[in-house]
Amino acid sequence: MPFRLSDFDAVTFDVFGTLIDWEPAIVAFLRRWADGHDRSAPSDAELLMAFDRARAVFQAERPAYLYPDILRRCFDHIAAEFGIPADAATRDAFAASPHAWPAYADSHVGLATLQRHAKIGALSNIDDASLQSACRHLDIRFDILVTAERVGAYKPDWPHFHTAIADLEALGIPRGRILHVGQSLRADITPANRLGLTCAWINRPSRALGLSGEGAAQARPDLTVSSLAALVAMLTGEQAIA
């Protein structure tokens, strides 16, 4: 085993996709909307990948939009791509949907187990209010919180990472004692590599967001697992317990 939890003083996490299971909710929303207008609507995979491409474009724009506006622009982009009507009420409902996205079953227990031994942080491409909802779903209080709203940028841009590193350094934790964990190759693993951070890829089964696009093919995780529970077991040698 390459690492133990004793090698680190802090573990930072991507949130949506890594700890919050957003893909099924996104697909279900877009599926209901598309099927309501066109019985020959695009497949689930086509809708999801259209969302993935669109968010990468809008998240790169500066000054940065708040995440609800990213979702509104993604919705309009998907509607235009597939020729499906985009009404304002459905667009706004999509923008509010992060508040209802659920946590993975292993997220709370895994985070609580790690937090008994190390600081934990959230580095999320989201707005502050939506991350507060996610924390309620996770039933956890992170030691540091870095959002796109706070830093005015979206991963894979580096302000999230620079801010988290500075926050942890203020707690006496150097960069070499940080483990960063993410599901997105594009937004988390590749920039972590470039910044010299040790990183773990949680390759959740049947999840696709963030696994393609610019930089994804260059990602080189130091550790790959299929769940947070598996990561905790590898780091601690024990099963996560509540």
TrEMBL record:
Which keywords annotate this record?
Hydrolase
Q: Which GO terms of the molecular function aspect are on file? A: hydrolase activity
From which residue to which does the signal peptide run?
none
**Xref: SUPFAM superfamilies:** HAD-like
The identity of this protein, by name, is HAD-IA family hydrolase
- Cite the source lineage: Bacteria, Pseudomonadati, Pseudomonadota, Alphaproteobacteria, Acetobacterales
